[in-house]
Amino acid sequence: MEVINAIGRRKAAVARIYLSEGKGQITINKRPLDNYFPAATLQYIVKQPLELLGVAGSYDIKVNLDGGGIKGQAEALRLAIARALVKINADDKSALRTNGFMTRDPRVVERKKPGRPKARKRFQFSKR
After folding, report:
1. Whole-model pTM?
2. What's the pLDDT tens digit per position in 45-80?
3. CATH code, 91
4. 36 by DSSP, 3-state: which?
5. Nearest C-alpha neighbor of 101 from the set 6, 27, 3
6. Looking at the DSSP assignment, which residues form a beta bridge with residue 5?
7. What radius of gyration do the chain's Cα atoms show?
8. How far is it, in rounded angstroms, from Cα 71 to Cα 34?
9. Is residue 107 part of a domain?
10. Cα-Cα-Cα-Cα dihedral of 58, 71, 73, 3, to 10°?
11. Which end of the chain, N or C, is less surrounded by CB atoms within 10 Å?
């Protein structure tokens, strides 16, 4: 099997992954998964597509992660892993889609408008 690459995005985070056959090691920016994401919830988010299909120990994943915060990065990585698994076996797409792993979450921070302190917040109104 050759190396399969995929990309995932969430908010400002971008995850580029290279998936190949191996023993289940996930390396993010040259660091192991449990070192990069110390929180168990974020590790769980990253591994969700692999656990769903039961292939957690059969692929090595090298990741370049950039931008955003840790939660956005974890969800971008989850999307990239799901897309790479579909490239390997297209029959898995329906299972991944029903669990919501194939959908790119389009929500991003709304821009700040001029004359306001934040995107929608207004300065305090004074009648006199």
Report:
1. 0.90
2. 999 999 999 998 899 999 999 999 999 999 999 999
3. 3.30.230.10
4. helix
5. 6
6. 18
7. 18
8. 14
9. no
10. 10
11. C
